[in-house]
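#struct-help
A.M.: can someone run this one for me? Single chain, 388 residues.
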Amino acid sequence: MMNKCKHAAFCLMLSVSCMSISTVYGFDYKSEVVIENLDNPWSIAFISNSDWLVTELSGSLRRVVNGELQEEPIAGVPEAFYYGQGGLSDVVLHPNFNENRYVYLTMSAAGTSNKKLNFLKVVRGELHKNELLNVETIFESKPLRKTRAHYGARLAFMKDGSILISSGDGFNHREQAQLLDNHFGKFIRLNDDGSIPKNNPYADKEGYKPEVWSYGHRNQQGLVVTKEGLVIAHEHGPKGGDELNIIQPGKNYGWPAITYGVDYSGAVISPFTEHPDMEQPVKYWVPSIAPSSMILYSGDMFPSLKNDLLISALKPGDVRQLKFEKDEVVSESIIISEFGRIRHIAEAPDGSLMLLTDQRRKKENLSESLLFQKIVKRMLFLEKCRLL
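D.P.: on it. Structure tokens below:
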């Protein structure tokens, strides 16, 4: 029982019948916890409004049908390297999923000859019933690393059907983010089958990784592609210096040569915050908010959020609404702030918002029910916010 409680989750429901409606900075909603017993949830994808996929960092791909977490994880998922920040991360459906059944997963994986080494891997498989079939690896980052942090591991489809993958700097390999012969601190662009697009900026340059789309990044965990094809991403800074960037092919985003943050020890990483050959962020945060995911809201359930960026943040445990006009952030508002560390935000097909929340809470903050008192070490749950 103790081992199970260590990583368990419990159900928290907020509604008119049990509690007053939450009003945070003028944003009215009610929330209900719709899944419990998740182990380090990281990402969610919607097959339909009643059929969802959720990744657990520990390596399982879980399915939720009609609000019920299925007992058995989806079979056929390759083993992930589950250490530190590593594990099974993003899950994304192919735009033509209904026809080809392709599911894309990002994960850290162990090296074959040396299990202490690891790398970022992207796989795709065909989802049939509760199993991934014909699983194939479409990307492996190089070189291998010893560190267990800063994988990036976010994936999105571009307007032309190619895919963009964030590959972090590996923490101890930050200088490699400025070099084009490796995958550290890069955005990677591939065709949906893993082949390299001929129009990538370095596709025909000897000595460069042809998969590279942009470079000079740290740990990019938010990625949005608009209907117009604009690519927007955010990345974790060190101590301060989180960034929101517009990603363009062949551009250098500066890390670690320029940064608005400092080392966790307080030491200076770089004395420079700008350089004529490097891109400036459209927004940066000092102190850090630890941005963890991002969507461009397109639903009708929350009209005040329409066409705005919503960013989840780990450190303050909030969701921020950013109005984005002409490649500039014109306003930022905190709209949700009471659920603790938010790992992932997603928009459901009906326009409701899903929050994957990973938070430790003190016993005195829990409900007085026996169930809630038993699970006090770690909360991992999925919030569903709906307009009243």
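A.M.: thanks! The chain has three helices and 26 strands.
D.P.: also worth noting: Residues 1-24, 360-380 have pLDDT under 50 and may be disordered.
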